[in-house]
Specification:
The protein is α+β, with helices and mostly antiparallel strands. It has one domain. The two termini are 25 Å apart. It has helices at 24-49, 54-74, and strands at 10-15, 79-84. It has 2 helices and 2 strands; from the N terminus they run βααβ.
Length: 91
Amino acid sequence: MNMPEDIQPKSVEVTTSKRFTIDWRDAGKGLVMAVIGAGLTALQNSIETGHINWKAVGTVSLTAGVGYLLKNFFEPPKTVVTITPPVKELS
């Protein structure tokens, strides 16, 4: 059954980087992981002690970012398919 073009679902295929390589997308996601790790550590420190231990924040941030990059460096490539449902315009 053929559906009209405006109501067919759209799909996007994205292939991750090759094994033993890091691309800019990986580096950006590693930076996001580092920032999230730093924010959560700062929040935890401020709740527990009333101040922020910047050494712990830096250590967790560095560990989260480097850990993410190492995971992507050794992981084989995958193809991720995202399917978005069609949006029908109201008339």
